[in-house]
User: Fold these one by one.
Assistant:
Number 1:
Amino acid sequence: MPRSFLVKKHINSFKKPNYSELEGTTVFFTPHIYKGLPLPVIPQPEILSPAAYSPITVWTTSSLPLSPLPSDLSPISGYPSSLSDTSSKDHSGSESPRSDEDEQMLPKLTDPHGVEAEKFQCGLCSKSYSTYSGLLKHKQLHCDAQTRKSFSCKYCEKEYVSLGALKMHIRTHTLPCVCKICGKAFSRPWLLQGHIRTHTGEKPFSCPHCNRAFADRSNLRAHLQTHSDVKKYQCKNCSKTFSRMSLLHKHEESGCCVAH
DNA sequence: CTGGGGAGGGGGCCC
DNA sequence: TGGGCCCCCTCCCCA
């Protein structure tokens, strides 16, 4: 699988990405069909819904609700060091290619014989080991296993197994794609394009069975169900079929499938 | 109440 | 790794 977007279920993470990199600049999408039209100047924040806009204003890079980041996010745990840069910025105020945790690991790595007893300490649980290999084994078996592939969203409690998944999710908070017509913001460009069709009235998805056309492919697909004698969603009890899952749910909630 | 349209969200796949 | 696209799903509203 090229990319994994699996959401990690449990909440146990110390990893925080560099959000300054994740929060891309706002994209104002102007379709070519609007060229030449006197587009209004969009008053952005006040016309957006509070739910859609508040994350942008509430959280800033300097006010990230970061969890206490241990200093143990060493390269041996398998994570890009940049992911923890945000935390190190908070107190160091400067950036360097080598992160704080790297610096902390260096003396230990250059001392493979463990001259001093209990010199190798786990930054996550504070357990100490006399040899580096002992610490490494501990990390692989315990602490790293708890934090492996855990990228947490700073806006909500969701966690993802990959940075790419987290980046995409964060767009649902930052809503970088803004409609120039009405100012509404969206997480992805194609969502914005679909929204723009509501302004233009463009309906590129036509039903082959009737004259209806739709701006959204999903809505056409739902519509096509209405032409089918056997709908996609079937009640397990009475075998009645429905064109939509929601209709099936309503049917089940109405009492058809009460007796199991 | 049911069925259907409109609009939008989110994860997964492909390039 | 990122963007585009697809699919599935949900919510709201209306006839």
Number 2:
Amino acid sequence: MPPLDVRKIEEEVREYWRKKGVPAKWRAPSGGKLFSFLEGPPTANGYPHVGHLRGRVYKDFVLRYYRMLGYDVWAQGGWDEQGLPVEVEVEKKLGVRTKREIYERIGLERFVEECNKLVDYYLEYWKKYATEMIGLWLDLDNAYETRRGRYIEYVWYVIKRAWERELLYEGYRVLPFCPRCETALSDAEVDMGYEEKESPSIYVKFKVEGGDGEYLLVWTTTPWTLVDNEAVAVHPRAEYCVMAVGGERWYVARNLAERVAQELGLESWGCVEVLEGLRLRGMKYEHPLANEIPLHADHHDAHRVLDAEFVSLEEGTGLVHIAPGHGPEDFELGVRHGLPVTSTVRIDGVFDERAGVFGGLSVDGASKLVVEILSKKGLLVKCGRIVHRYPHCWRCGTPLVYRADRQWFMAMSLLREDLLKALDSVEVFPRVHRNRFESWLASVKDWTISRSRIWGTPLPVWRCSEDPNRILVIGSVEELKRYASKLPDVDDDRLVHRPWIDSVELRTSDCSRWVREPFVVDVWLDSGVAWIASVDGLRNRELFERLFPYTFITEAVDQTRGWFYSLIAASVIDRGVAPYRQVLIQGHVLDKFGRKMSKHLGNVVYAEEAIKKFGADPLRLYLLSRYPPGDSFMFDPDEVRKVSTSALNIVWNVFRFAAMYMDLDGFSPRVHELSKYLGRLSIEDEWILSRVNTVTAEFADLMVRYEVNRAVQLLMDFAVEDLSRTYLKLVRPRVWSEESDDRFVVYAALYYVLKRLLKLLAPVVPHFSEALWIRFVKHFEPDEAESVHLTRAERADERMRKPQLEETFRRALRIAEMLASLRNRMGIKIRWPMREAVVIAEEEVLRQLEPLRSVVARLSNVKSMVLAADPSVCQSGEYESAQEGGIVACLLKSVDRDLYMEALAREVVRRVQVMRKEMNLGVAELIEVAIDSDSEDVTAAVSRFRDYIAGEVRASEVRIGVPRDGYLVKAWDIEGSTTRIGVRRPPSSGERIPGTTITRDEEAGG
RNA sequence: GGGCCCGUAGCUUAGCCUGGUUAGAGCGCCCGGCUGAUAACCGGGAGGUCCGGGGUUCGAAUCCCCGCGGGCCCA
């Protein structure tokens, strides 16, 4: 086996999968229980980044895991292709600034074609870098697409169901609009777009009617809303004071008076009268812009003081200006008091002609003019700036405008109980995220599903032109065609889109002409019907019934108010239950400083870049293991290599080591079955066999709770700590020894462990595991499955598990560490053997440690390992000792002549090994060694340990004397001596070793 | 204004639910060692008022209260 080259093996493995059609075989049902997964469709817009990869890696990991447990997995892909995100980008591409331009300059047909083209473009990208390249085996050939006619029908279907249940209604309501995109936004969308914004902060005097120099002082950050002002609100139970300012009387909340005075820079003022808010109720005032906006002259009942609980006494003046057309609370208050709901702002954020002098101005332009006019009139007390959090369009960043308009709604507030009940049947991971979801559902509001856009599912609502109160809701294409008196000649995928749908005319027996409401549907409802639309569920009823409700979904935490909600909402509307059983809510991926990834900051790590740089499996390992799934993930590129690549390297080399010796000795797992050697196991064999089964069991426990990071860490710790660092270190001498067939015991145990490890790793690092499956398992068992991913996972074999042994082993390893620490303190290398180590502990502990004496002795390189209960044993000055947790470990300090000789021999061995490596010799190749030292001790040691040295370095001859021609010679410093060591292949072995025939006596080494 | 979560070494974190050895890792840093799979690795060391204060308790990183700081969500 070659050294690990991650990207190369990934490429090979991808090719292997493609050639053998492994993913399709993996997805093919085999009669097991069903694990149905529902793909949260990525928006086909923008390039995937590591945040997307995190989610997709979880999906793949979970699916592979369950597939290996014997489940049939349903792994259909899906794409979210419509909506504002796509439109916004197409507008940029076409250089369009307003919606009107789309209609007039571009034309809807071309615009929709461009949307389709853009989707196609990004789809290819997502298929490659966010799917294929990371080994995600979703079925993309049969992926659902929200732009298809067959899909859109289900959005219609659910809307019609809502209509039948009287949950669909149209209403007049104040909503946030994006003036640039010219559409309303849902609550969830508003949530996504809060940003800092600098706004004007103005204090305005409203002149009290009939009062002499009496004013209501109001504060606002949106001067333009004063255009549609209809009232002023006060808190009914707050105290208000009358401030005397330069001969005028201003009404201000008492609590805020001091602050307001400061803010306005008033030098002398006094609170001359205090009265309760309720006493202000009914006071009439003059609209400050009455002259500029004629329509206010007709609002006889308006422009008065009302009381409202929502009035804030924390900021402003305690008197709130009310524009029922521009604030949700204002709207409710206005409706309650019969005020006119004035909204002279059009959907594009420009005032219409009713706004008098403000007609034709944008809201910002109007704000400036308002300030100017009020200033001239002497009604502007102060005009400052303020930075506050304000909602912006989540797609294009434009500040939102609240205005009243007619829209269509789903009456979700009526379904609160049903939603909560549905959620009861859902397992939410991690648990902490459940609260959020629950509280969102508990306070859910009606859902504005209409959007004034183009590239989306058309709202299937038609109005009778003869009687506007009559509504017809269409639930399928078939139904549409049944009522159609005029149909454009296009395929269904087009028919269900604007502009074609707009030319459809319907006729029924009771109405000759139905006209479609000019809206499209909120995209969240598109993806929200995926549970049925993805499989065309009404036509494929049997399949649908098997899948529903889906076993598992997972997305990031922002989808709580997005997809997780829209799925459960649509499903509850149609059938009253949740469409999924388990939901794993992931945290977001941030940059390494914990900042959000954004184009603006330039800190986005894109999928393509990351995969090319690190390889898919190191990235997967890192994403799966570094943080708990529900936590934010601080992505640090430097860590990927450190954490993942090195671990994979170790695992790879464990397999290399095993393969090398197994091959050398002609090991065959079929001939040398583990069962034959069970009676001959060494203690460390028993231990590693126990460990691998314990890890298997613990892994499964963690997976039940989706504690993915801990599960994966557990595996890697086992591979690196237990298997590589401990087990292989212990068994190396047994593998080298040719005296008995004990090495086959090691091979049998090791093979068992490695094969199990591979299966455990397969869902984590699928390419890497497959490469080892092919190179290692299929090498020794050619008739094994063609892919590790098509095999069944092994269950933990409880008969192999020995918890007490594992516990004691851990203690023994700790003792070996303590001894290493003692050596470190004494300055004696591990290479040098020591005469005796003593462990002092309680009888019970000693009894358990007894079988592990040789393990500790080998790891610590001591001749004799003494267990003693009597603490006095090593209290003499002859011992160096350390103590921890009731155990004392000590080491006999003296190095006698025999030990010294042995140590020198080992020093020689080590030098020869280095030279073997330099000569690139195979592990089995024999050599001849000649040693010439100016130290009598070294010479004596070589002579005395000649056989030992020969065995260790695989030499057919160890000669004392000057190396001759044909030897590679190096001069080494061994314990102050100059020792020249010559190494060569035996002449009988044939050809010369290139570059090693020249004797270089003077070369210094070591 | 309300809700939820978090605060442990320079950085990233485990432990907290279920109180009990000397608070455990990884990275980085310093010193040493090992190396017939590994451009790998191993050992040791320095570095912690477990955010602050109060309480409960024989005993608190852990449970309770208050405060400070941060994040997310809702209004």
